[in-house]
Inverse folding.
């Protein structure tokens, strides 16, 4: 039984793992349900520059540490794109998630499962991460790269940033699909593949990981997947985290998915709260434009033109709006939006103060090297985003 880990990030409503969607066939990508959008909103979504990340996690039994790092660092990676722009236009962030190398997955699928398609629903991604469980299995680098390339709805715009990060500790050449063939196909789609070997650099170099990155036009990294994530606390953390939870009160779920999505939002706050800094970085993400819940929240949905308040039936509305006339409903909605704006502004102010405090601490940590997942990703993202004309600051 092969024991290794693979994480693939390609620039990013989940029940538990047992109830998540099954493997989609290779020739039929899983489709994410979408709310109806207005013509203006649709045009804006199409024209916005995109950063697309697909996370393919090896969930074999030796990779608990890698998955744990991913859980803790998700919001740190997301926050790197808060100010992402190309030619002055704000970028859209989409994240996808795969798992593979797990004996509970079918041999016919190559022990690979698409868990979440490319989505802007960050709570969905977080929920899936926290639901993943490891089990021994066979892990195939070439095949998982091929499936991610074929199944996901990658942007056809050449200037968009499309990245894959594949991490593991077994030879890169294993499995029925040649990694050279899979990488060639990814390059044809404008996808850059970065490799993250979990172990010593000399082993990664001798087992194909460095070669894979070279062929893909990406960067090779080596990390210690079992290393505890160094999380630097700051004086602003406690208030930021509390304000992040307060933000939930400003969300008005509509339609069939609204109530479930609000529960998911609270559950991901709870998941992040197991680490004080994770709770802070999640709250920072929730205060940014990247935290888009327009598919279920009336404040985001009406602002983006994805839903019209007057078109909803009483039973499709949240409790706060039921039994009220149109004027009263609008007053509640306006009040929620005003409250959310004020909370987000305060979080953003505290985040700036926090960043100044952390600047010196991060310089001290830099001497320790890029040996955790987030450091590898952020280093390559800054380099490769510039090559595509993006600015992140």
């Amino acid at each position: 039984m092969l024991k290794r880990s693979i994480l693939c990030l390609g620039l990013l409503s989940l029940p538990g793992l047992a109830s998540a969607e099954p493997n989609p066939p290779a020739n039929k990508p899983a489709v994410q349900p979408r709310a109806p959008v207005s013509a203006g909103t649709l045009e804006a979504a199409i024209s916005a520059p995109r950063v697309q990340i697909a996370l393919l996690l090896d969930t074999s039994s030796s990779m608990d540490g890698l998955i744990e790092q991913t859980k803790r660092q998700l919001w740190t990676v997301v926050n790197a794109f808060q100010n992402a722009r190309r030619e002055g236009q704000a970028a859209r962030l989409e994240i996808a998630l795969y798992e593979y190398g797990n004996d509970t997955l079918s041999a016919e699928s190559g022990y690979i499962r698409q868990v979440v398609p490319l989505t802007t629903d960050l709570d969905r991604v977080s929920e899936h991460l926290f639901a993943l469980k490891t089990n021994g299995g066979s892990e195939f680098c070439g095949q998982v790269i091929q499936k991610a390339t074929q199944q996901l709805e990658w942007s056809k715009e050449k200037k968009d940033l499309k990245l894959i990060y594949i991490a593991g500790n077994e030879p890169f050449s294993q499995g029925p699909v040649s990694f050279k063939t899979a990488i060639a196909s990814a390059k044809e789609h404008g996808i850059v593949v970065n490799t993250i070997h979990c172990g010593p650099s000399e082993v990664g170099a001798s087992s194909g990981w460095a070669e894979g990155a070279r062929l893909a036009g990406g960067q090779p990294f080596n990390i210690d997947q079992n290393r505890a994530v160094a999380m630097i606390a700051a004086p602003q953390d406690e208030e930021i985290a509390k304000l992040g939870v307060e933000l939930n009160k400003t969300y008005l779920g509509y339609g069939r998915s609204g109530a479930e999505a609000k529960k998911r939002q609270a559950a991901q706050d709870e998941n992040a709260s197991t680490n004080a800094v994770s709770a802070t970085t999640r709250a920072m993400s929730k205060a940014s434009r990247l935290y888009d819940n327009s598919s279920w929240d009336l404040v985001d949905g009406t602002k983006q033109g994805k839903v019209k308040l007057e078109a909803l039936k009483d039973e499709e509305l949240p409790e706060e709006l039921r039994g009220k006339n149109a004027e009263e409903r609008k007053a509640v909605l306006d009040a929620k939006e005003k409250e959310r704006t004020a909370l987000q502004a305060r979080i953003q102010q505290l985040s700036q103060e926090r960043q100044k405090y952390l600047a010196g601490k991060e310089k001290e940590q830099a001497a320790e090297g890029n040996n955790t997942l987030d450091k590898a990703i952020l280093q390559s993202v800054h380099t490769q985003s510039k090559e595509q004309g993006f600015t992140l600051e």
User: Anything to note?
Assistant: The two ends are 45 Å apart (CA to CA). The chain has two domains: 17-229+369-391, 237-366.
